Structure formats: structure tokens, C-alpha cells
Amino acid sequence: MRHLLIALALLASPVAAAPIVLRPAQVFDGTAMHPGWQVIVDGEKIVAVGPGLTVPTGAAVRDLPGATLMPGMIEGHSHLLLHPYNETPWDTQVLNEPLALRTVRATVAALATLRAGFTTVRDLGTEGAGYADVGLKRAIEQGIVPGPRMIVATRALVATGAYGPRGFEPGVEVPLGAEAVDGPALVTAVRRQIGNGADIVKLYADYRWGPGEPSRPTFTQAEMTAAVEAAHSAGRQVTAHASTPEGMRRAILAGVDAIEHGSDGTAAEFKLMRERGVALCPTLAAGDAIARYRGWNGSDPAPDAVLSDRKSFALARAAGVKMCMGGDVGVYAHGDNAREMVLMSAAGMPNTDVLHAATAGNAASFGLADRGRIAPGLLADLVAVAGDPARDIKAVKDVVLVMKGGVIVE
Ligand SMILES: [Zn+2]
After folding, report:
1. 46 alpha carbon to ligand 1 midpoint, in Å?
2. How many angstroms is it from 340 CA to the middle of ligand 1?
3. Most Cβ neighbours (<10 Å): which of 32, 340, 353, 401?
């Protein structure tokens, strides 16, 4: 028996894989395009990048003619535990879908995301699926299912009465899409989420208090400030869902690291964001998808919600706000993450800036020093796409190769 165990252990020990030389038409290193460069990967790391590299002895060479090799993209705002609302409304997913169903479906979403070239996701809330994001992340890390590296928020934190599903007789307890908590208990909840595996804390700075209402602030300044202080002292970033000027303002003053949506932000809030180094995840694709689910065909005139997203995006760019690439994927199909990039480009952002936002920009905003750029010593999370996305951003949808940690994704 003992000999058998030793033999099995030998079989299981990883054989040192040969270095891989990737030879695309050009390399986008996270900032600029470099025609004629190559990249050498050894183990899980990038070991060399540049023109005219010497092929190491025994290395495997992978030619990628006509392709652009980029850092694996980083989705800034996903919900792997949700699926598109035109398949099943959000309320029904939260109220009627069993946790196991949602979790199994999320494994499929994770693979679709990875195959689309997104090797990291910042997953901003399970929307009623408890701490299933932590379990999914562990299953991916353990190699049980394939998927991107995950930064998880677990259950987002909302003020009592300010989230859904709603509309029930007040005596009926229904599962909510987030955890409702207020006052000093908010700090306790921040710590509980972190203890349960949250890498980032998500707060709702504003929301609709009733059906059909516009969004209004939820947490007070004091509540938000205390929550951010508790998260930061535990080494976790905080992001705030905020679309109203006052909600954004409270979140910024509380010290959040990023704001999600920002749809009704004015020049004043964006100026404050730039001064405080707060990033914006504009989620143009979510607004676009929801408008289409309601019957918009994409032609002008666009609905008000789409117009206000475009307007705030332009104001934020004009103010010099650090821009994330994050589309709120889950509202629309996982694997279609590049939809946000196409919309950012269509709204006037230069393509190389969009590519930067989705790679080095997101990595810097989320504190991920080991990825997001192509440089020696960083993780070999890479994606090759056909053509030149600096010319036509839609090229990022035409994925020819994905590598995560030096391993080619099949
Ligand atoms: Zn979201």
C-alpha cells in the first residue's frame, strides 16, 4: 500500500512544463501597442517580453499570426450568480431559484467568462445567493471547475427597507438580494462579510425606496464613513452603488475606492472623485441591456436612462476620473463582457484607453499588482484576439487563445 501511495504521488507531481513562446502580430502590454513583440511564459509567470527574443532550448512556440496578445482582461463589475433578466426577471431569480441551481449555473457563467478572455472578475454581490461566490472562488482555485480569478463581495450591504424584492404584505419575510443593516450593526456586518470571505465590501449609497421612485440616498454619511473605516482597516476596498449626486457625494466623502454606475453624477461629483482618486465603473452595458429588454432597438432617440449614462460617462472622462471597465454583466450574458468595451468606445473613449481600462487600469484600481500588464514577473494571464482592437474594439470579441497562470484554457 505504501509503495502504491508513493507511486501515485510521483504520478501526481507536476512535470515542469517547457517554456512557451507566444508570437502574435503585436502585443498590447496594458498601456501601448507593440508590433513585432513576443512573450515568453515559464510556469505561471511571464518571463520575457519584447522584440527579437531568443527562443529558449526546449521551448514550445505558438504562432498567433495576425493576432494581438494582451493581458487577460479584468471584468470590473460582474454578478456570476445572476443570469440575464430577459431569461428570468431578477425578482424571480432571487425568490424562486434554489441556491444550488444558481451556484451550478454560475460555474457555467465562470467558464464562459474565462473563454471570453476575462481571467479576473470583480464580482459585486451574490444578489440573494448568500456566500456562494466564496464557494465558487474556492472551487476555481482548487481546479474543480474552470473559471476566472475572483474578487468577491459576498452579500452587498443595503439600508433597511431600501432593496428588493419588495411589494409583499409587511408580515411576510422574503429573501433579499443583499443584507439589510443599519447604524452600528453596519460595521458588524462589514466585518462579518470579511470574515466569511469578502475581498471587497459593497455598499448601496442610494436606491429606489419604492417601486417607480427615483433613487434617493440610503445610508447616512456617518454610517458610510464608519463602514468604510472598518473595511479599510481590514485591508479591504469598498465600492458603492451610487447613481444620485448626493449618494455619490456621501460615498466619496466616506472614502470609498470606487463608485458603480454614477448615472446622474454631475461635474461636481466627478471633480471630487478625481481629487480623491475614486474610480468609476460606468456600467453602460447594463443600462443598454435593460433598455433593450424594454423594447428599445438601439436606434436614436435613445431612452433617457441610456442618455444619462452616456452624459455622466462624458462628464467623468472630462473631469479625468479613473475609469474602470465593468459592465454589470449578469444583467446580460456572461461571456459577453466586451459589450461594455464596445459601448465605452462608441461613447467616445479612445480604443487604447478602453483596452487599458480593461487591463492595467482595472488592475491598478483594484490593487492587483501581479496582473493586468505584460511584464516579466507578472502572472501569465493572457488573451490573444484576432486583428487589432486598437483599430476596431470589437476585435476583443474574437478570442483565439486564453491563458490563465501559464495554462492554456481549452
Ligand atoms: Zn451590479
Report:
1. 32
2. 13
3. 340
Number of residues in the chain: 410
Q: What share of the chain is helix, strand, coil (3-state, %, to 5)?
A: 35, 25, 40
Supply the pTM of this predicted model. Answer: 0.95
CA nearest 158: which of 132, 134, 124? 124
Is 279's pLDDT higher than 50? yes
CATH code of the region 2-71+373-408: 2.30.40.10
Average of per-residue pLDDT across 34-42? 98
Q: Work out the pLDDT band at 212, boundaries 50, 70, 90.
A: confident
What's the topology of domain 73-365? TIM Barrel (3.20.20)
Residue 6, pLDDT > 50, answer no
In the reported structure, the alpha carbon of residue 375 is separated from the centroid of ligand 1 by a whole-number distance in angstroms of 31
Q: Within a 10 A sphere around the Cβ of 388, how many other Cβ atoms?
A: 18
Give 328 Cα–ligand 1 centroid separation in angstroms. Answer: 5
pLDDT, position 70: 98
Q: How many Å lie between the centroid of ligand 1 and the Cα of residue 395? A: 25
Each residue's pLDDT tens digit, 143-191: 999 999 999 999 999 999 999 999 999 999 999 999 999 999 999 999 9
Task: Give me ligand 1 centre to Cα 242, in Å.
Answer: 11
Q: How many angstroms is it from 41 CA to the middle of ligand 1?
A: 34
What would the grid cell of residue 173 be?
Answer: 419575510
pLDDT at 17: 79
Q: Is the peptide bond before 245 cis (omega within 30 degrees of 0)?
A: no
Distance 331 CA to ligand 1 centre (A): 8
Question: Prior bond to 165 cis, omega within 30?
Answer: yes
Domain extents in the chain: 2-71+373-408, 73-365
